[in-house]
Description:
- The complex is a heterodimer of chains A (about 350) and B (about 280).
- With about 350 residues, chain A is of the alpha+beta class.
- Chain A has two domains: about 5-230, Rossmann fold (3-Layer(aba) Sandwich); about 235-345, CATH 2.40.50.100.
- Chain A is about 25% helix and about 35% strand.
- In chain A, the strands form four sheets. Chain A has a six-stranded mixed beta sheet, with helices on both faces. Chain A has a five-stranded antiparallel beta sheet with strand order 13-12-11-14-20.
- In chain A, helix 3 crosses helix 4 (about 135-145).
- The longest helix of chain B is centred in the N-terminal third of the chain and has 41 residues, at about 5-45.
- Chain B has 13 helices and no strands.
Amino acid sequence: MQLSVKGVVRRFGPVAALGGVDLDVAEGEFLTILGPSGSGKTTLLKTVAGFEIPDEGAVLLGGEDVTLSPPRRRDMGMVFQNYALFPHMTVAQNVAFPLEMRRRPREEITRRVEEALRLVELQAFGERLPRQLSGGQQQRVALARAVVFGPRLLLLDEPFGALDRKLREALQLEVRRLQRRLRLTTLFITHDQEEALIMSDRIAVMERGRIEQVGPPAELYARPATRFVADFLGESNLLEGSLLDGVAQVPGFGGVPLAGAHPPGTVTLLLRPEALRLATEAEAAPCQGLGRVVETIFLGLSAKLRLQMDGGAEVLARIPLRPSSPPPASEGATMLVGFSPEDVHVVPRG
Amino acid sequence: MSSPGDSRRTLARRELGLFLLGLPALLMLGVVFAWPVLRLLSLSVEGGTLEHFEKATLDGLYVTVLADSLKIAAMVTGICLLLAYPVAVWLSRAGRVGAALGLFALLLPFWTSVLVRTYAWLVLLGRNGVINRSLRDWGWIDAPLPLLHNMGGVLIGMVQVLLPYMVLPIYAALLRVDPDLSRAAEGLGAPAWRSFLRITFPLSLSGVSAGCALVFVLSLGFFITPALLGGGRVIMISMLIEQQVREFLDWPFAAALSTVLLAATLVIYALIGRLTRGGRHATS
Lengths: 350, 284
């Protein structure tokens, strides 16, 4: 169901954990709140869930104002960071809990618990206790419990934090498929930008109690609206330059012609590491400079190189590696570094 | 690189180290507890006769007193549980300062001896005690209420002394219950009272069981408080044992009574443990 957060403010003493947040989540959409710890994302989630009452603003669910409704009346399924499975109940009893609270008939509960457990492929584990399951299985039980009663909204509070990398990736895709199949409107909280890029229809980046930018992952990555978003999402080179007549003078690279109209003065240019070309591949690039390799990091599929530009800043380049590629340049080597102005994004001042 | 043999040896050495650290306590218990208990057991069957046990378990008087003692202990345990549970819940939710103050108030009585506290009850509960006099001065009663030298007085005194032993284990168990669990229950549609009954209470049963066992066992052997506040009208088994030793110098019979008390205590302890095994999940 459609969720709207309108002008929500939440203060703790003199500190505003949420400083006027507006957010719309469309029906069936998977929206991620991405932000560092202390950015207010957990407070926002608690406000939507009903565990926090905002000082100002409103929360609307399907057009209905639920700002003051207690959590139990909101019909939201929530997966907690530590899953919060009831340790003294079996898996089946855990999943049945929300249905029992809604006083559904016995047969319906049995049937829907079975369905939900099949959905997360745990049908054989109904009689186990949570502590007899692995972390990934517990996570799936928590998910089954959150969706079994057909919630109006699914809330996920950093549910993958405690899992190892392989399992986390598998579960991320599983949760995404489940969410699409059930067409559940979902609000997902994380500080992991990679996770946000993988899972979301749209991402809202939060910082200091405010939403900096909302948009599809590809848009946020390519055209960040603020310096914070550019820095937080993915790896970035933020180059300072001075703009005159549509050409930015960037130390180390010379003049970079910019498309579109920008006010003259200092500009910040975002250049993703994968936009940089090195050595012979840089020869045809419109913008060039000389750089000395400071560090080379081999990553398998690619290599990352930190380069000190001649008369300029340090930049990070990422070059793809094929099995036949020669080994990436070693430290101390000097080479040509280039890029094309189309790959440059001007970060608005703010 | 250490071979498996090495690590096994390290492990064995660590176990030995832990054993040595525990040794002084073990010796202490052996000398001042296990040995006297064994001596007592052997005293009770001195001369190879079981007549003392026969008297202790078949004589109507002693059986009645033992049954009364069990009954009093059960009542004290029940009252303590009813009073302690809400206090423990309050403490577990009181926040840092509130909990510190509450615990301080709870433990304050431990700074005075049981004897002093029992005499204080005499002053409070007596015919011309503080309570009766106040009630009469306010015109609420004409004749003094019988608060002392009866079961009521004994229960009041014992509950007051034993209450902390019930509060503390329950409080500890409640603290171990993850607050996210009741939040999750509420989010899944449970009103606060149902979330308490289905989640918080069952998860605190390990503490309830520990508190009940502690209070019951301590009540069963209580001596000073029932002796003073009961005024001879409430007899507990420990008082009979003391009488046998001090007045009749009948050590073997006192030993037999003690053994019966010890056996009853162990049986009850095992029963409480079995009854509340369901609450054990909370601790894992």
